[in-house]
Target: Aldo/keto reductase
Amino acid sequence: MKQRRLGTREVGAIGFGAMSFGGMFGPTDEATSLACLDAAADAGITHLDTADIYGMGLSEEIIGKWGRRDIHLATKCGILNGPPRTVRNDEAYIRKCLEQSLRRLKRDHVELYYIHRRQPDIPVEDLAGTMARLVQEGKLGGYGLSEVSPSTLRRAHAEHPVTAVQNEFSLWTRLPQLGLIQACRELGVAFVAFSPLGRGMFGRAPLKRDFRTGIDFRDTNPRFIEPNFSANLAAVAPFRALCAERGWTVAGAALAWVLAQGDHIIPIPGTRTADHLRDWLGAELDAADIAEIERLLPAGFAHGDRYGDHQMAFVERYC
Model:
């Protein structure tokens, strides 16, 4: 696999998001998750991303049991599910969460630690100072921010260099192209794209409306409820036809498009099973391919918002 820079390390251009190990998109089990991690490593994936909230620590526990030490590992803290859903960025809380994550991961440090969402009433400079102290203490290789604006990134980076920003970015979520991807490039910060496959919309087969009520959050996500869901399936169908015509997997082409948007971008697709990993690799796009994909799926084509209102509360909006 081709390599890209993430902090001081070179990692595989495609990383792995381990949210699904927490059971948030469907049933899973430890053995299946461990086999999936083995397959990811065999495919050349060397950057792994998780968070304390994924399965309320379950994803981290599985990665800790896997035990690989040659993987560049990131985890996150800052979201409290509640109710009500809220965030915390104070130093005491961050330190407590980090220690709990390290215990589950069976590590004494982590290469990258994100603040999952920013707490608006704590100056980002104070937050950056907290993260800088944890870096100096050897607990973190670097720190990152998630779902932030370019202005927040610049303020934090001026206090202590930011390693990575993780925001949603895919063919149907294009907001980061309005300033954030450019700011990351300018500052030498990696842009880590989560949900690059549209939470399954750009998977092997068209999705069905069989999401688990109360568990799979797509069941109430605006893009996955009717009439938006059917409209989105119809909008993506010509892209699926193009992939079949060109011999690409749908996931492989969607990831190749993300990778083509900048050499500092690292997508982190996720899956519950090793079987889907092979769909991620192999698509090579030229300029004409990219133009045709963007003709079929122009910026803003998606029907519905990417989050419900309750999930947008601490997402920074800047356009």
In short: The first helix runs from residue 30 to 42.
